[in-house]
Design goal:
By secondary structure, this protein is mainly beta. The protein folds into 3 domains: 184 residues, Immunoglobulin-like (Sandwich); 164 residues, Cupredoxins -  blue copper proteins (Immunoglobulin-like, Sandwich); 150 residues, Sandwich (Immunoglobulin-like), CATH 2.60.40.420. The strands form 7 sheets. A 7-stranded mixed sheet has the order 13-12-11-15-20-17-18, with no helix packed on it. Strands 1-8-6-2-3 form a 5-stranded mixed sheet, with no helix packed on it. A 5-stranded mixed sheet has the order 4-5-10-9-7. β12 and β13 form a beta hairpin. The longest helix has 24 residues. The radius of gyration is 22 Å and the shape is globular. The two termini are 16 Å apart.
């Protein structure tokens, strides 16, 4: 794969300006004709499923009047069963891909955009050169061939652009979609399926007077993360989902750039959680509300049985302290209010359901879902010396251990032996250094590790933030397998992360995409 990296380096200066300009202006021109593959299909890899994904600039109808220019991924099923690819036509969402554990998959990414781009398979356990590291970004007119076996258990995963310094803009433009995996263990549970297994992609977007996506690059928006003016569900505004009087499986993805959601049913019904990032829990959990950070997924069991026709039920984001140090609800560090009409931590509707028909479902909520083997601290290779990753923002940069992201900049403490279990601490001011609140340094960070999923060991919170922290703490769903963990200001979260099977470069970064683009991202070398 060195030839790909070298090609990228040689063309970086030539195409860098085009990539940045293209990401901002949504140009109309696209390249026609054949795509040049920068890597070739493997002769000894025999896929069960083959999908061609093409990224284009296109116009779609979102509102009355002018069409909206978006960056759209379209999927073509070359080999595999029907139902594998849903192109989500009429929306900016990338295709929903449905695969099975154990399948061998070939995905060919064609870049027809006036910008460099690469897709990351978020949550999937795949080889390093198939993971979507920014070093493998391809230029307009080029193709990248991904080949891997689905090793993950059943769950709601996703994929999105991961292009150096413009990830936020490219994801905002439309380069993101769901990747849903099933397995025999899940199928034996008789959970709601078909129309009753409902993906719910939650995003926020803003538009100008000509119905075009409006993405602010104002420094305040970069520091806090972009917050849109309105909530979109599955790529559409003002969504009301019709449901029947029966159980549903709701697959919630926070696909927003930076917005945190504190989700609750408006009638006080508890939220029944059956799954997290890496698939089903051992047992269902009930919460009065749940926190959902960018990149996180939750699977929710919702039974509409017994509700009258035309009953409406709203999933809301309810108030919480976005800052842990004063400022109150909806305020960022230092009391600076979000410029969005939907400030972080405020109260607003996310999604409305309306009961439209009576129907008897044959699904019952299982008392036990799937077995999960708990990882043990004593089995960690570094059990006596946890790897600490300190989160900080200063000098208009977002940093991990005081470092900003650079390619080919792996430090000695960022090298990890393959086939080891690592104890890792994310420290967001728990151990001190909580100053500079007047400059918006008091920020939540949803931390994401590429590759295998991890388990959360514990959370610790600084006594100085305990009162505001209580507005979010009960909404954490920390059991099961995770790949994103929300770390609030004044908090330290300890995880156990396996680094099995694959050597190479895997990333750790904040999934507030503006923070990622500002440098809150590092490479870990597994060797």
């Amino acid at each position: 794969m060195n030839t790909i990296i070298n090609l990228h380096r040689r063309k970086l200066l030539k195409y860098g300006a085009i990539a940045i300009a293209g990401a901002i202006t949504y140009p109309a021109w696209v390249k026609a004709g054949e795509f040049v593959r920068v890597n070739k299909p493997s002769a000894d890899f025999h896929p069960d499923v083959e999908i061609e994904l093409t990224q284009n600039v296109t116009d779609i109808v979102i509102f009355e009047g002018e069409k909206t220019r978006v960056w759209k991924v379209t999927g073509k099923l070359v080999k595999g069963s029907s139902g594998t690819v849903d192109n989500n036509e009429g929306t900016y969402l990338a295709p929903t891909l449905r695969l099975k554990k154990g399948q061998k998959v070939r995905l060919i990414l064609n870049n027809n955009l006036p910008a460099q781009s690469i897709l990351h398979w978020h949550g999937l356990h795949v080889p390093a050169n198939m993971d979507g590291n920014p070093m493998y970004a391809i230029n307009e007119g080029e193709s990248y061939v991904y080949e891997f076996e689905i090793r993950n258990r059943a769950g709601t995963y996703w994929y999105h652009a991961h292009t150096h310094s413009v990830t936020a803009k490219q994801v905002y433009s439309g380069l993101a979609g769901l990747f849903i995996v099933s397995d025999e263990q899940e199928q034996a549970l008789n959970l709601p399926s078909g129309d009753y297994d409902m993906p719910v992609v939650i995003q926020d977007r803003s538009f100008d007077s000509q119905n075009q996506l409006d993405y602010s690059s104002h420094m305040m928006q970069r520091m806090q993360g972009f917050l849109g003016d309105q909530i979109f569900i599955n790529g559409r505004p003002n969504v009301v989902l019709p449901v029947a009087t029966r159980p549903y499986r709701l697959r919630l993805l926070n696909g927003s750039n930076s917005r945190l959601y504190k989700l609750a049913w408006d009638d006080g019904t508890p939220i029944t959680v059956i799954g997290v990032d890496g698939g089903l829990l051992e047992r269902p959990e009930q919460h009065g509300f749940v926190m959902l950070a960018p990149g996180e997924r939750l699977e929710v069991w919702m039974d509409f049985s017994g509700r009258a026709i035309d009953t409406e039920l709203t999933l809301r984001s309810i108030p919480f302290a976005a800052s842990m140090h004063g400022g109150g609800m909806g305020m960022m560090g230092g009391g600076m209010m979000s410029v969005s009409p939907l400030p972080s931590g405020s109260d607003y509707p996310v999604l409305k359901f309306r009961v439209t028909k009576k129907e008897q479902g044959d699904n019952a909520l299982p008392k036990v879902l799937t077995p999960i083997t708990a990882l043990r601290v004593k089995d960690a290779q570094n059990a006596a010396n946890p790897k600490t990753i300190t989160l900080s923002m200063r000098h208009m940069s977002a940093l991990l251990n005081g470092r900003s992201y650079q390619m080919n900049d792996i430090q000695p403490d960022e090298i990890i032996p393959v086939n080891t279990l690592q104890l890792i601490e994310f420290d967001n001011g728990f151990s001190g250094g909580m100053g500079m609140h007047g400059m918006m340094m008091d920020m939540p960070h949803p931390m994401h590790l590429h590759g295998e999923q991890f388990q959360i060991v514990k959370r610790e919170v600084n006594s100085g933030v305990s009162e505001n922290y209580q507005t979010v703490a009960a909404g954490y769903v920390d059991n099961g397998w995770k790949d994103v963990v929300l770390v609030m200001p004044g908090e330290k979260v300890t995880i156990l992360k396996p680094f099995n099977d694959f050597k190479g470069t895997f990333m750790v970064h904040c999934h507030n995409l503006e923070h990622e683009d500002m440098g809150m991202m590092r490479d870990l070398l597994v060797q």
